[in-house]
Design goal:
It comes from Paenibacillus lemnae. This is YezD family protein. InterPro entries: DUF2292. With about 70 residues, the protein is of the alpha+beta class. The chain has a domain at about 1-45. Helix content is about 15%, strand content about 25%. The protein contains 1 helix and 2 strands; from the N terminus they run αββ. It has one helix spanning about 10-20, and strands at about 25-30, 35-45. The chain has a two-stranded antiparallel ribbon. β1 and β2 form a beta hairpin. The radius of gyration is 22 Å and the shape is elongated.
Length: about 70
């Protein structure tokens, strides 16, 4: 038989605290036998679309699009 989920005020405050300053992301709540046993927070950071704001491309280092194809040495 399915047990009803028990969520008291303490859990509601924990959930609200994890969601409070999140701008982009998700909160995964794991329930076992009608009780919350785990919460996982995944947060995303988004940046503008201009090439200067891309954290993967460092100055002085060519991007993957700018690199020449490697020749296969045998």
């Amino acid at each position: 038989m399915v047990k009803p989920l028990k969520v008291d005020e303490a859990w509601l405050e924990r959930i609200a605290g994890l969601l409070d300053d999140m701008e982009f992301g998700s909160l995964h709540i794991v329930v076992h036998e009608g009780q919350i046993v785990q919460m996982e927070r995944t947060e995303r950071k988004r940046f503008g679309n201009s090439p200067a704001s891309s954290p993967a491309e460092k100055p002085g280092r060519p991007s993957a699009r700018q690199q020449l194809p490697r020749s296969s040495a045998k």
